Amino acid sequence: MPDIQPKPFTPDQLGERWDCSGETVRQLVKRGVLRGFRIGRMIRIPQKEVEEFECQTSILEDCAAACASTGRGRTESECVVNLRHAPERKQNPRR
After folding, report:
1. What pTM was estimated for this model as a whole?
2. Which of 37, 58, 72, 80 is within CB 3.0–4.6 Å of 63 for a Cys-Cys bond?
3. Are strands 37-39 and 42-44 parallel, antiparallel or unpaired?
4. CA nearest 46: which of 3, 4, 9?
5. Dist. CA 10–CA 22, nearest whole Å
């Protein structure tokens, strides 16, 4: 029986999971910070990549312990990526 892989995430699904916008997730993929792949114009992010990214950017002890199985260690002094919403842009009034 073949090994069934979980469905990959869409940027909007990850945005909801991480409490940020789908566009923020798209930019992470575009900059190469988060690994994903394209199907036509659609971006998909494998669950394994999401879990590794969360472990790398989390300071939680239980998550750091889970990263040990992937061979990636973390220390408290490592940088943490802070996902946040971009501020709304105000429209300039036309004169």
Report:
1. 0.57
2. 58
3. antiparallel
4. 9
5. 8
